[in-house]
Design goal:
CATH superfamily: 5'-nuclease
Order of helices and strands: EHHEHHEHHEH
Largest sheet: 4 strands, parallel
Number of helices: 7
CATH architecture: 3-Layer(aba) Sandwich
Structural class: alpha/beta
Strand content: 5-15%
Number of domains: 1
Radius of gyration: 14 Å
Shape: globular
Helix content: 40-55%
Length: 119
């Protein structure tokens, strides 16, 4: 299983993955932190992306992805990372750390982490 950050998920759905990302995602089940759903809704609200979370195709794609809830353990872990990023990215990284699942991200700050399991 892989934990996808928001941008990787959006690039996957849009068919804009790198060759490496494509290889990784073809071989594993996808998962996301619950905060990713909020980020998608927020990006749509401010006009940075065009996604309707109620669209049947979007619902179909999201229903096939495991969604990790934000727990107290994840919230605490997000405050103890070895890198600082925006709060959503920290929760996404902490999800990978707590559940020991590789994170697939393009986030330069998260890629510098020595704690977070990266794909």
């Amino acid at each position: 299983m892989l934990n996808l950050d928001t941008h990787v998920l959006l690039h996957a759905v849009a068919g804009r993955l790198s060759a490496r990302e494509s290889r990784l995602l073809k071989r594993a089940r996808w998962s996301i932190s619950g905060i990713v759903l909020w980020e998608i809704a927020k990006l749509a609200q401010i006009g940075r992306i065009k996604v309707d979370l109620e669209d049947i195709d979007v619902v179909r794609v999201l229903s096939a992805i495991h969604v990790w809830p934000i727990t107290a353990q994840i919230a605490k872990a997000s405050t103890q990372l070895d890198v600082k990023s925006d709060p959503a990215d920290e929760l996404i990284a902490a999800t990978s750390l707590v559940h020991n699942i590789p994170l697939i991200t393009r986030g330069k700050k998260l890629l510098r982490s020595k704690m977070v399991p990266l794909a």
